[in-house]
Amino acid sequence: MYRIKKTVKLFQNKNKIKFIFMNIHQEITIKCNEVCRFILSLLAIGIVKSSLFHQVKKKYPKVSEQDINSFLKFLITNQIIEEFKESKYENSIVSRQVNFYSTIVPNSESMQDELSNKCVLILGLGGVGSWISYFLAQAGISHFIFVDSDKVENTNLGRQALYFKDDIGKYKVDVISNKLRKLNPNLIIEKHKFTVQSKEDFMKIKHIPDIVVNCLDEPNSYFTGTWVTNYYLGLDIPMINGIGYRGRTISLGLTTIPGKTICWNCANASYKNAIKGYVPILNHNPQAGVTSPLANFIGSIHAQEVINILCKELTPILTNRIGVIDFLTLDIKWYKLTINSTNCCPICRRRNNI
């Protein structure tokens, strides 16, 4: 069965048809007669090729099969129509996502199958982690590990996802888990309510995830990123560290692909030297200002990066560089990361040959 792609809009005037490709912002305009319009009307609802030929020949006996084939070839070549078979994702919560990736990867359904079977560890369910968990559940991730020792407070409601007044005083991992299961009752969720204070704490997590997303900000992102890197790099687990904000400035996280990219320790060698001899004050809780749209914005960027990492057809964009965004102007600056080629990173044991 052939049909016009859902990502294509059609407009017509007296003798022309305009095809607008919604996913890629392109268009094609062609001259179109009555026969072409009739063929397009059949393709709009979907029709098998033999039936299309039969109906066109019945209504327009003088039209040759060669002419019909020529028009169909044009429509196929320009990706206006597709050979259609019923999708298992039709009308599911990820149907539009499968549609989106259909113009980016060869088989968006296979990509969705791959994504749906992944396990994501999210450390911290606050202003960034809560949004990431929500976006990834919407994207079809079926297995989560959540780590957060905090309970919901009134001040959380203005910037964090899925928390409401009647959740105050409840553990965040419990609230998020319950809310996400309303979206997908079949979710597998492993919950932990401990405070991360060293890499050894990760030994409490039994399941090995496919990716680690570090949204912990206590004592700060440097220390938590170091703990995550020290533990999970040895397990060859991809990770994102350093997600954060300071007022209007957003720091995009650093993606580490073990054995292929710069790690958190490589990127922070100068910072490590600057704080040498200092230890974090664990009971001090500094708080940067933030708005709900800003937190949502950060969460969406990094949720997409998780998808980029987990799907082999896509490419991570936050490797070997740090991005800093001014939220009020949306100006972004990229800082390419390098390390001294004469030194060997004590964590990833890899010289700078990227």
Could you explain the architecture of this structure?
There is one protein chain. By secondary structure, this protein is of the alpha/beta class. The chain has two domains: 2-83, Outer Surface Protein A, domain 3 (Alpha-Beta Complex), CATH 3.90.930; 117-336, Rossmann fold, CATH 3.40.50. 32% of the residues lie in helices and 19% in strands. It has eleven helices and 15 strands. It has helices at residues 34-45, 49-59, 65-77, 95-101, 108-116, 129-138, 172-183, 221-232, 264-267, 269-274, 292-310; strands at residues 2-4, 8-12, 16-21, 26-31, 81-83, 119-123, 143-147, 188-192, 211-214, 239-241, 244-246, 249-251, 254-256, 321-326, 331-336. The strands form four sheets. A six-stranded mixed sheet has the order 8-7-6-9-10-13, sandwiched between helices. A four-stranded antiparallel sheet has the order 11-12-14-15, with no helix packed on it. It has a three-stranded antiparallel sheet with strand order 2-3-4, with no helix packed on it. A hairpin with a 4-residue loop joins strand 3 and strand 4. Helix 6 (129-138) crosses helix 11 (292-310). The chain is elongated. The protein starts with a strand and ends in an 18-residue tail after the last strand. The model has no long low-confidence stretch (mean pLDDT 91).
Features:
Outer Surface Protein A, domain 3; 2 domains; 11 helices; 15 strands; Rossmann fold; six-stranded mixed β-sheet; tRNA threonylcarbamoyladenosine dehydratase; 32% helix; four-stranded antiparallel β-sheet; single chain; alpha/beta; 354 residues
Distance between the termini: 47 Å
β-sheet strand percentage: 15-25%
Largest sheet: 6 strands, mixed
Q: What is the average per-residue confidence, as pLDDT, rounded to a whole number? A: 91
CATH class category of the largest domain: Alpha Beta
Separate helix tally: 11
Strand order of the largest sheet: 8-7-6-9-10-13
- Spans of at least 5 consecutive residues whose pLDDT stays below 50 are none
Give the class from helix and strand content and strand pairing. alpha/beta
